[in-house]
């Protein structure tokens, strides 16, 4: 999944930049906020530890994990079980997909709203 993460952020950034460039409204609109939330949710989904197969090994031999820190803050189960990580990963994936859908809808809305003005 992480092999797809960085190209996905770049692709979303290119698509968003194209929509913003072609739109006459350069204001910081709804799509800008949703885009930032989407990138944040994707970044928080990257696992920097070396203990998991889906990890992005940016910190060698270290257990630092944004996903682990995030789940430690918001999930009451502190046993660090596989199910805890799986449930968080599934939740964050659904969040990313939902934000991606909202981004597409808001880009279309902002674009047609700016054409009406």
Overall description:
The chain is mostly helical and 117 residues long. It has one domain (2-116). It is built from four helices and no strands. The protein has helices spanning 2-22, 30-44, 66-74, 82-116. Helix 1 runs antiparallel to helix 2 and helix 2 packs antiparallel against helix 4 (82-116).
Q: Any chance you could write out the topology, listing elements then pairs?
A:
Elements lengths: L1 H21 L7 H15 L21 H9 L7 H35 L1
Helix pairs in contact: 1-2, 2-4
In angstroms, what is the radius of gyration? 17 Å
What is the straight-line distance between the termini?
41 Å
Characterize the quaternary organization of these chains.
single chain
Q: Structural class per helix/strand content?
A: mainly alpha
Number of separate strands: 0
Into which percent range does the helicity of residues fall?
Answer: 55-70%
Reported for the largest beta sheet, the result is:
none
Number of domains: 1
Please trace the helix and strand order, writing H or E for each element.
HHHH
Low-confidence stretches: 47-66, 69-81
Tell me the number of helical segments per DSSP (H or I, 4 or more residues long): 4
Shape: globular
Q: Average pLDDT, to the nearest integer?
A: 58
How large a portion of the residues is in β-strands, by DSSP E? under 5%
């Amino acid at each position: 999944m992480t092999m797809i993460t960085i190209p996905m952020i770049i692709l979303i950034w290119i698509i968003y930049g194209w929509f913003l460039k072609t739109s006459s409204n350069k204001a910081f609109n709804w799509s800008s906020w949703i885009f930032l939330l989407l990138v944040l949710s994707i970044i928080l989904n990257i696992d920097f530890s070396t203990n998991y197969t889906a990890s992005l090994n940016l910190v060698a031999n270290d257990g630092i994990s944004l996903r682990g820190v995030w789940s430690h803050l918001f999930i009451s189960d502190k046993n660090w079980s596989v199910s805890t990580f799986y449930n968080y990963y599934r939740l964050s994936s659904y969040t990313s997909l939902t934000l991606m859908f909202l981004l597409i809808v808001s880009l279309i809305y902002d674009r047609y709203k700016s054409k009406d003005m």
